[in-house]
Design brief:
Blueprint (H helix, E strand, L loop, with lengths): L1 E2 L13 E5 L2 E3 L4 E3 L1 E5 L2 E6 L9 E4 L4 E4 L1 E6 L4 E2 L2 E2 L4 H10 L2 E8 L7 H15 L3 E7 L5 H13 L4 E5 L10 H14 L2 E5 L3 H13 L6 H6 L2 H18 L3 E3 L5 H12 L4 E3 L3 H5 L10 H6 L12 H10 L15 H4 L19 H10 L6 H15 L17 E11 L18 E11 L2 E5 L2 E2 L1 E2 L13 H13 L92
Parallel strand pairs: 1-22, 2-7, 3-8, 9-12, 12-13, 13-14, 14-15, 15-16, 16-17
Antiparallel strand pairs: 2-5, 3-4, 5-6, 8-18, 10-11, 18-19, 19-20, 20-21
Helix pairs in contact: 3-4, 4-7, 7-8
């Protein structure tokens, strides 16, 4: 059931009273059995044998898990891109999120080159405010660089509640920045206390590799992966880490798709660099072998950037790193296009709109591939689907935890139930699903957003525009705590020494004849005739004392010594000799 926006007349904060009894609460740090009382969209009490006002709706959660609602850190709803617009708008995208147990999304506001960041922000904000069914925030893209952009970053940080900015090393001519621009942008973000997000692929190499593939006659979806191999993601990831470290700006690598890029992040963290890695539902749930499927429509559905990797062990490898702390949280890069939109690239893979689904299925995918397989426990699941996002983007403990005073964004989870993912039952606007047919253990039974039940008994009860913008202050402790200390203790210090007071070379004082600019004089041997074999006559010496100037006058230092008829070597090394020269 959905209330259209034109008919709604509801407050942004729900007035419902809910009492959830008997469930096991799962936070990132511990699990415990307790009841939860919710009023006016806020968690008011947590504990056993609660004394609560009457009139609250009771929910029996015995045998179930109660977790913080999911936070998807990476969506692209109704985004103009590659000649079209992503089909999931803020309404369809957020209601799909709620059906899957996600109660907040962070979308990407991406200005066109030359467009004001503030203008783009106001446009995205107006559309989200009108349509979003759950809470939301924005990352703002830095797609070009100028003094005006610097000023607008400051305004967005100080006045608009934005603390994260996205840059691209790929999509040359559209979003891509050069390294010097990235460095300058990161320095400004560091000054403001914001977080730098990076799409890490080598755009120049991709541009050339695309030309190569097309020249070879490879025009299908497989060309997408072949032109963006794993090493271009690894190289750009490493380069982004180096630039961020030089700017002393915390870095967040979006959609980590490969083993080598993940390893680069893990290595950098071991070296003490402040960098976070975000694998997504797609890179954790499926692989890139689909690009070689005989069905063009099927193969094109998986086209995204960076591409999924054909190494079938990649999803499990990324999940291992996520489970053990080398990677930190999960998004989806939900940017969906229907088959007719993907068909813009039917004859040229470079024109296939990049993007896949995931916002509805992310929680189930992570549970299936992580918890059900024994790679992570439920607490780690909460950390990578909710808590870490709230901390890194600085709205914890408002969200990301179940405790008194936090927003009542919850999901009641049945770890024993199963569901089969299908395009026929999902709640997206897109008509394809890259996880089609996957059976997942772990199902969201009830989703609560701002204290209101929005998903129950496999039915949605959402209101367009009920979602609220979440403002995020700068200097998130999770990102900046170490950096602010380093700013104090690692200040570069010059060497205190006596000033140099010796001579300094000056080209104006150099001898006039120290460097001759005249053409070299041609000697006689330079025009000697060649031997009959066509080679230079080595017996014809080019040495002439007369040509060395009047100082030598053709004489040698031993001309006054009388020459001898011969020399006898009396005792050469190795034995005697009577040889006479």
């Amino acid at each position: 059931m959905t209330t259209p926006s034109k008919f709604r007349n509801v407050p942004k904060t729900a007035q419902n009273r809910l009492l959830i009894k008997g469930g096991k609460i799962v936070n990132a740090d511990r699990m415990f059995v307790a009841d939860i009382y919710i009023e006016d969209g806020i968690i008011r009490q947590v504990g056993e044998n609660l004394i609560t006002p009457g009139g609250a709706k009771q929910i029996d959660a015995k045998g179930k898990l109660i977790m913080p609602g999911g936070i998807d850190t990476h969506t692209h709803f109704e985004m103009p891109f590659m000649g079209t617009r992503s089909i999931d708008d803020f309404y369809h995208g957020t209601k799909a999120a709620l059906a899957g147990g996600t109660t907040m999304i962070i979308d990407h506001c991406l200005p066109q080159k030359g467009q004001s960041l503030l203008e783009a922000y106001e446009d995205w904000s107006a559309r989200a405010s009108e349509r979003a069914c759950c809470d939301y925030s924005f990352h703002v893209g830095i797609t070009w660089w100028s003094d005006e952009v610097k000023k607008e970053i400051e305004v967005l940080c100080k006045e608009k509640g934005i603390n994260s900015f996205k840059m691209f090393m790929a999509y040359k001519g559209v979003f891509m920045l050069d390294d010097d621009e990235i460095y300058q942008a990161m320095c400004i973000l560091k000054e403001q206390g914001a977080l730098a997000l990076m799409h890490a692929e080598n755009g120049n190499l991709i541009n050339e590799c695309c030309k190569k593939m097309l020249a070879l006659g490879i025009t299908g979806p497989e060309g997408h992966e072949l032109s963006r191999p794993e090493e271009v993601e690894e190289e750009a990831t490493t380069r982004a880490i180096v630039i961020a470290n030089q700017a002393q700006c915390p870095l967040y690598i979006v959609h980590v798709m490969s083993k080598s890029a993940a390893n680069a992040i893990s290595k950098a963290r071991r070296e003490g660099k402040v960098v976070f890695g975000e694998p997504i539902a797609a890179s954790l749930g499926v692989d890139g072998s689909h690009y070689w499927d005989k069905d063009w429509k099927h193969a094109a559905a998986y086209v995204m950037g960076p591409p999924l990797r054909p190494d079938v062990t990649t999803p499990g490898y990324l999940m291992d790193l996520l489970a053990n702390g080398d990677l930190h949280l999960t998004g989806t890069d939900n940017c969906t296009f229907n088959p007719d939109q993907k068909a813009l690239g039917r004859d040229d893979f470079t024109k296939i709109p990049n993007g896949v689904n995931g916002v509805e299925d992310r929680m189930s995918i992570i549970w299936e591939k992580g918890v059900y397989t024994g790679k992570m426990d439920p607490c780690r699941f909460v950390a990578v689907t909710s808590t870490n996002a709230a901390k890194i983007f600085n709205f914890y403990p408002k969200k990301g935890v179940i405790q008194v005073g936090s927003d009542a964004d919850l999901v009641i989870w049945d770890p024993n139930a199963t569901r089969t993912i299908s395009k026929d039952t999902h709640h997206h606007a897109v008509t394809m699903n890259i996880f089609e047919g996957m059976v997942c253990h772990g199902v969201p039974l009830i989703t609560i957003s701002n204290g209101r039940i929005v998903w129950e008994d496999e039915q949605l009860h959402v209101t367009q525009g009920a979602g609220r913008f979440v403002s995020r202050p700068v200097h998130a402790p999770e990102a900046y705590a170490k950096i602010l200390i380093r700013d104090k203790v690692r200040v570069p210090v010059g060497v205190d020494r006596e000033a140099y007071d010796g001579p300094v070379w000056n080209s104006a004082n150099a001898p006039a004849n120290s460097v001759s600019k005249a053409a070299p004089k041609q000697t006689q041997n330079q025009d000697r005739t060649a031997t009959r074999h066509g080679h230079r006559d080595l017996h014809a010496s080019g040495f002439s004392l007369s040509e060395m100037g009047p100082r030598y006058k053709g004489n040698q230092v031993d001309d006054n010594v009388k020459s001898k008829v011969g020399h006898k070597v009396l005792a050469p090394p190795g034995g005697q000799s009577s040889i006479t020269f």
